[in-house]
Design goal:
The chain is an all-alpha fold and about 325 residues long. The chain is about 80% helix and about 0% strand. It has helices at about 5, 10-20, 40-50, 55-75, 80-105, 115-150, 155-195, 200-210, 215-245, 255-290, 295-315.
Amino acid sequence: MAINKKYSLFASLLLVMFSFSVVLADDSEIIPDEDETSAIGNSIDKIRLSFTFNSEKKIKRALEFAEKRLAEAEALEDENPEKAAKARQRYESFVEKAEIALEKIENAGSDSEEESEEDIGRMARIQERFEEHREKASAIHARRLERLENQNATEEKINRVNERYDSLVKRMDAREERVLNRFERARNTHKRLAEKSDEEIEDIIEEIEDKEGITESRLKRIERTEIRIERFSGLRDRDIARLQERFNSANLTEEEKTLIQEKIDRFNSLSASFEENAYSKIDEARVRDLRTDNLSARRIDGLNRILDGRVANATV
């Protein structure tokens, strides 16, 4: 399976989630609790990580601790920007440690059939953890933007927040590309050592992902993505109604009405573009996967049930 095909369905859905973060409320179920974020907690986490020597476990713990710091930065942004900046620096520090651990895995290899199959499982779990990290970062960013909206923040302030997040996303893209390249190497090594066909390798990967709960976790992310679509539609309708109510006010000048109408038009345009982009990404991803000969019929059937059923309901 080529690298670009491995990006297909789930990576595209993660891009959709990134788009949703611009307008959605927070996802409290996947954001670390605020009582887990503190200076003392940060010190404890650093000690715990220093005594984690397995590279895979180090990646998972480093990302877990990084997400706490990112949530901390978001929570402190309004009341203490200086502490929020320090929390973001701690986030970057933990992410860097995850990248160093990933580099060690990138430089490792497998010499036997058994080791190469174990390597596939390890890379599947690592890929899943980075995908999960992206979703959590997106949810934290969404919560920040919702608070800015409630505060009637200036467009300049919102743009600064989005620019900072754009930079974070680019770094996540680069990490996930590295993971996919390493996953592909593990796949090809096991194919060679075990003398398996592409179809047999895909069956092995599917079995591993099912056993590790990765398939179920990804399907849950699809469901959360669809919930985000529904939330977005509700927020869009609410905000347009509020703007329309202000526009109809008899106390507004013509200049004020013009500004409001421009905002309504801009919001309608953004909403239409957003929804079209979201659904097209999901649909295009599915088409790419259906055209991939290496995917099993069982996996295709499962994805079709999710995408044809729940996504269709979300568009009603």
